[in-house]
Amino acid sequence: MARDTQLLKGLLEGCILALLDNEVTYGYRVVELLGKYGFREPQEATVYPILNRLEKKGLLKSEKRPSDLGPPRKYYMLTKDGAKELEVFKNEWENVKKTADRLLEVK
What is the pTM of this model? Predict the structure, then answer.
């Protein structure tokens, strides 16, 4: 399980950018979507700091929107720089994936 955690930490930023490329949404929904796509038990305590870090880097922007269920929610969306960073992540991930696949196929 600890190995899963270490591997996933490096992927979460790129995966969160990808989710926000598909839809503008709030933090808890990002947690839900990560779970829907198969990440095991994504935690709010992990996701919210990543969202804040990506926003500070200028890769995301946010705005508060009213919620029917309580206080306003902070919605996140990709910036132009975020879209560029997502493309970089996809290319880097493809290279890492190909390399690992080649290595793991060695018998």
Answer: 0.87
